[in-house]
Every structure is written in structure tokens, then in C-alpha cells.
Amino acid sequence: MTVKSLDVVGIGNAIVDVLVHADDAFLASEGLTKGSMALVDAEQAEQLYARLGAGLETSGGSAANTLAGVAQLGGRAGFIGRVRDDQLGAIFAHDIRAAGARFDTPAATGGPSTARCLILVSPDAQRTMCTYLGASVGLDPADLDLSMVADAKLLYLEGYLWDSEAAKQAFIAAAEVARAHGGQVALSLSDAFCVERHRDSFQELVDGHVDILFANQQEILSLYGSESFEAAVEQVRGRCRIAALTRSEAGSLVLEGPSSHVIEPFRLGPLVDTTGAGDLYAAGFLYGLAQGWSAERCGRLGSLCAGQVVTQLGPRPQQDLQALAAAHLGAGA
């Protein structure tokens, strides 16, 4: 068997996150619905940014956060995503490389600027996101480093990119290469509204190309048009090798063939910011899979990583995840 030099390679939106504390009055004054994610154009993004206070700027994007988490756990991670050759593009590239992930996608020299997500964190830890997708949605098959994909144990795809036809083609091309070289394909559904827009094609992707599926309760209900979580569970069971379904404070459910593993949440401190909880759950789970762990143990590490990241501001853990895993999961974590 060929030895892989990478544990996980992810494809997703390359976004710079700008995290700022904002109260309900500010959200109301800007006409923003707390807890929502709205897409904005370049002008709207600049105007809102100018009205905000000081913030924390760091490379983000759902899959990029996951790959940074894999690297922080000690995994060998790579990321593929498009930025522009501008200031925010340089911030993104620096931060994800500093987190330990390989990032080789050349910056675009023309077209829209680097994507950014303004994340307004309320006192109750809810986050309201205004996202300008910019250069990130221009990702196409030509941006793929297929040698990197072929050299990974796991390929991780970010559902947010499914809105782009070129990115869809990139996903399928990468999935086919991954499987042809003995890798497995994981998908995050990312957002219930995205699933609503593309339900049929997402179902086809899951049935035809996906080995490991990540979804929260709202996303899996949307995928199958189910009225109850239990009904959605039965719909997805057996369609892929593993389905990891997160349920916020109720923990998660990991489906593996006929088996079901109920994973309890880890509560490691006061809730500060839920940004990145799903991303870090996927990071822990994928890291464990790459090490050959059982699905149940992978779920526990995912839950632990999610439990840590919600105790801080921002989606990149500020605590040593390897030490945290060793303390809570024991030897071999």
C-alpha cells in the first residue's frame, strides 16, 4: 500500500474572518438578524467594516478552520482555496501556514478581492455573519493540486462552495482522484439554506462520492426534507460509510453501518462564541480517522475540540489541542 504524506486535504472558501463584539442595538441599527449569515457585496462589506470597532483578523473559512485544527492536533494537513494577491490574501496565506497546514494555491492576479467574513459576536455568544465571497468562489478545476489530493488519506469538501458551478466540477474531479488513489472523501453540508438550494445534487454527491458526511441537525433535516431528526437518521443511514450528525448542546450522533454512537458534549467553560464549533468537530473527527481510530473515539475527539473552541473568541483554538486530547481521552490521543 502506498504511504500517504498527508492526513487530510481540504477544499473550501479561503476567507479572512474579522471578529468583532457587537450588541443587539448595533445589529438592529444595521438591519441584521442575530444568528443569521448574509451574503454582501464588496461595497456593503467595506461600509459595514468601517462602522465596526476594533476586531480580530484571522484566516478563516469553514474547511480552512478544520484543516488548521487537524494541523494543531498534530496531523499533516493541506488546503486548496483561492485568494487574491492583496493584503487580506496575504493574511490568509500567512495564518493558515502558521497553523501548520500546507497551502500552495497561487493567488489570483485579477478579479475580485480576497473574501472576508464580518462576524459580529453578541454578548450571548451568538454570531451574526456578513460574508463577501470575493475571489474564493472563483475556484475551478485548474486551481486543484491533484498531486496533493492523491497524496492524502482523506479529502474534505466544504458544502458552501456548492453554489459555484466551477467549484462543483472541482469537487467531483478531486473526489474521483482521491478515491482512485485509495483515499476517502468527506463532505460538510455547511449550511441548511445551501442544502435547500441544491438538495437533489447534494443527495447525488453523497450517494455517489462521499464516504464520511458531516451535518448538523438542521442540515440533515433539509437534505432529506424530513420532519424529524429520527426520520432523517434513517434516510441517511447506509448512504455513506459514516455520518456524523451534530446537535449543539445535545452532543452528536455518529452512524456507522447499523451502529449508532451517541457522543456526549464536552463543557469546558462558559460559552463565549459558537463560531467554528462544527469546523473543529470535523477537525477532531478527521484527525482520528487518519490515525485509524474507531468512529466512536473520533466523535469524542470532535466533541472535545468543539467544546474547547466555543469557550473563546474565534474559530482557531488558542489552547494546545494535543495536550487537551491527552488529558481527556488518554494515551494515544
Task: Write up this protein.
39% of the residues lie in helices and 22% in strands. The protein has one domain: 3-Layer(aba) Sandwich (UDP-N-acetylmuramoyl-L-alanine:D-glutamate ligase), CATH 3.40.1190.20. It has a nine-stranded mixed β-sheet. Strands 3-8-7-2-4 form a five-stranded mixed β-sheet. The chain is globular. By secondary structure, it is α/β, with parallel strands linked by helices.
Tell me the strand percentage band: 15-25%
Envelope shape = globular
Indicate the radius of gyration in whole angstroms: 18 Å
Mean pLDDT: 92
Distance between the termini: 25 Å
Total strand segments:
14
Supply the number of helical segments: 13
The major beta sheet can be summarized as: 9 strands, mixed
Provide keyphrases for this structure:
333 residues; five-stranded mixed beta sheet; nine-stranded mixed beta sheet; single chain; alpha/beta; UDP-N-acetylmuramoyl-L-alanine:D-glutamate ligase
Summarize the model shown.
This protein is of the alpha/beta class. The protein has helices at 24-29, 42-51, 62-72, 87-98, 146-150, 165-180, 192-197, 199-209, 217-224, 229-236, 277-290, 295-309, 321-329; strands spanning 6-11, 15-21, 37-39, 56-60, 77-80, 101-103, 115-121, 127-132, 152-158, 184-188, 212-216, 242-246, 252-256, 259-263. It contains 13 helices and 14 strands.
